[in-house]
Amino acid sequence: MKNIFLDTNVLIDFLADRKPFSDQAGILFSNAKAGNLKLHISAVSYNNIYYILRQTLSHSETLKLLIALSDLVEIADVTRMVITKALRTSFFKDFEDAIQYNCALTVSNLSCMVTRDTKDYKKSSLPVMTPAEAASLFA
Questions:
Q1: pLDDT for residue 1 is more than 80
Q2: Which secondary-structure segment (H or E) carries 135?
Q3: Which 3 state secondary structure label does DSSP give 97?
Q4: What is the biggest distance separating any 2 CA atoms in the chain, rounded to whole angstroms?
Q5: In the CATH scheme, what is the homologous superfamily, with its name and number, of domain 2-136?
Q6: Of 22, 59, 63, 90, whose CB has the highest number of CB atoms within 10 Å?
Q7: How high is the pLDDT of residue 98?
Q8: What does the pLDDT average to over 8-21?
């Protein structure tokens, strides 16, 4: 079974149904639900997702989506060590990306990280794919 780490932008695409990106993310979630892969996300993604979805949904609707999400993914902790490493990972221009990356590094047997911002992860030691590339593995 493949272990895939999803960046926050992929999660928001799926939960907010941002077309055409949500279709590719949907393939990943369908395969996770079918047991073909395990999806991992950072705990910090929850507050970012809440902030974005709350702009168009009510508090209770947003929480329902986040609860449903928690049933489909493994949540990687954002620890002091993750933050310390993120602060020292100098090749990221976006601190949130540094947190995501260092959080992904804590996941055992990770196959890849999936993001729409692959250019931000050029120096990654992990394989990085777009949602389309990752979805094509299960087409």
A1: no
A2: helix 131-136
A3: helix
A4: 39
A5: 5'-nuclease (3.40.50.1010)
A6: 22
A7: 95
A8: 94
pTM over 0.85: yes
Q: Would you call 5 helix, strand, or coil by DSSP?
A: strand
First to last CA, the chain: 16
Packing angle of the helix pair 8-15, 21-33 (nearest 10 deg): 90
Whole-angstrom distance, CA of residue 47 vs CA of residue 76? 14
18 phi/psi in degrees, rounded to 5: -80, 105
Sequence spans of domains, the chain? 2-136
Instruction: Reduce the DSSP state of residue 121 to 3 states and report it.
Output: helix
Using the Cα atoms of residue 120, residue 122, residue 128 and residue 132 in order, give the sign of their dihedral.
Answer: positive
**CA 92, CA 55: separation in Å to the nearest integer?**
28
Give the model's confidence band at 33: pLDDT under 50 very low, under 70 low, under 90 confident, else very high.
very high
Angle at 85 between CA 83 and CA 91, to 5 degrees: 115
